[in-house]
Amino acid sequence: MMARSLRVAPEYINQVKSALGRNGYPSQQSLATHIELSVSIVKSFLTGKPVDYLNFVELSQELGLDWREIAYKEPEPQSPRTLSTEQQFRLEEKRDGLQQAWNIQHEKVKRIRQGLVIEDGTTNQFKLEQQFKQEEAKLVSLEAELNQIEAALQLALQIQISENKVQISPLQPQPTNGEASPFITGAPITQPRHFFGREKELKRLFNLLKRHPLQNAAIIGKKRSGKTSLLHYLKNITTTPAQQLRPKQKSDWLPHPENYHWIFVDLQDARMQSREGLLKYILESLKLQLPTPCDLDHFMDVVSDNLHSPTVILLDEIGVGLQRCPELDDGFWESLRSLATNHTGGNLAFILATPESPIEIAHDTGHGSPFFNIFAYTANLGALTQTEARELIASSPIPFSDEDVEWILTESYCWPLLLQILCREKLFNLEEEENNDNWREEGLKQIKSFTHLLDSELAE
């Protein structure tokens, strides 16, 4: 059962406070007035004090935050089958040390290999060949040990997920007093079980990624059309355990999903808006050694020499990167293009999200890099199909009447966000056992801010 009250975890309090101004609220009073709560509740929420569960969810969504992520979680008893914190720390420390040793050894083998080419046919060749065999054997040994530790850490993670199934399983419809709502209207959807539709786009995108060379794609859609949620879904769906998905939810999009690296880059994040910060983040995500200095030339060398597995970099809010980040200039984007097309053996692809075509947004922001010409496929996000929309509505823990389902479909025009909002209002109505249609009026009021999604539908 979900606790009746929740509080913001200490490590997220600063993030929550900063979200106030970022979402256009100059004071706690303005937020409280807007969502019709007392200032004391808002103040408690912002300072990490317990507030009612529903108030916590509403405040989180209003500030564009994932309430599941920021909520304080009570530590669970340690299972005898899982690694202790100390054991896991030691394994991770050993893995990082081995990774560094592997990087150094890999560079050494590379230099000897280059020497063999130079010394071809000379008296030194035999000595170099013997040295090459010895050093390559050390490299293979390091790689085997590194893989063994990675496998142990991955197994520990799977055990933890398996043991938590009972606490997190949302698959069976249950009374909702204390249960998490399936309808998410504030933050992007990050858990695959809450994502519906986009089957056509998913099929095309994964077809571009399951064969070599990996190919690039752009996801184009209006603001709040679900671009970020789709990026998260691409990243997570193929490796999410079946127990955390809906029944029959497709996840076998890739033949060997465990081999893929997915790197999600939010260019609204200030840390991603400097060249060095972004390059370090990508290298750390790939568990590659950070060069000194971590500039573009060294970054290119490290990735070119060490990227041997399929890797997909998901660029969200690319427009922000082009408009506000002078360090991410044409030279930067040209280098990324060169990396993907010439230096990684077809193992690197980019998928970006943007409200307009990459070429247009580059032109509008004064960029002329050929990077924006490599996106041969574009997925244009519109409304869901009727079938997809009905599946989303049917995920309600309390079934809706046929009349209400049809009304939701009509008023939302099957746009995911509008569906989520109207379903949320209907679910609240059912939870409170209010036998009236007041939820419809409230639902229409709530979707009024997002009528830009309906421009094309209303014009017909």
Give the topology.
Layout: E1 5-6, H1 13-22, H2 28-35, H3 39-46, E2 51-52, H4 53-62, H5 67-70, H6 85-118, H7 125-163, H8 165-168, H9 199-209, E3 217-220, H10 227-236, E4 261-266, H11 275-285, H12 296-306, E5 311-316, H13 318-324, H14 330-342, E6 348-354, H15 358-364, E7 377-380, H16 386-393, H17 402-412, H18 416-431, H19 438-447, H20 455-459
Parallel strand pairs: 3-6, 3-7, 4-5, 5-6
Antiparallel strand pairs: 1-2
In short:
The chain is α/β, with parallel strands linked by helices. It is about 50% helix and about 5% strand.
Estimate the helix proportion, in percent: 40-55%
Q: Using the CA coordinates, give the radius of gyration.
A: 25 Å
Principal-axis shape equals elongated
Which stretches are poorly predicted, pLDDT < 50 over at least 5 residues? 76-81, 161-179
Strand order of the largest sheet: 4-5-6-3-7
Helix/strand/pairing category? alpha/beta
Average predicted confidence as pLDDT: 83
Q: What does the main sheet amount to?
A: 5 strands, parallel
Number of strands: 7
- Quote the beta fraction: 5-15%
How many helical stretches? 20
SSE string, helix = H, strand = E? EHHHEHHHHHHEHEHHEHHEHEHHHHH
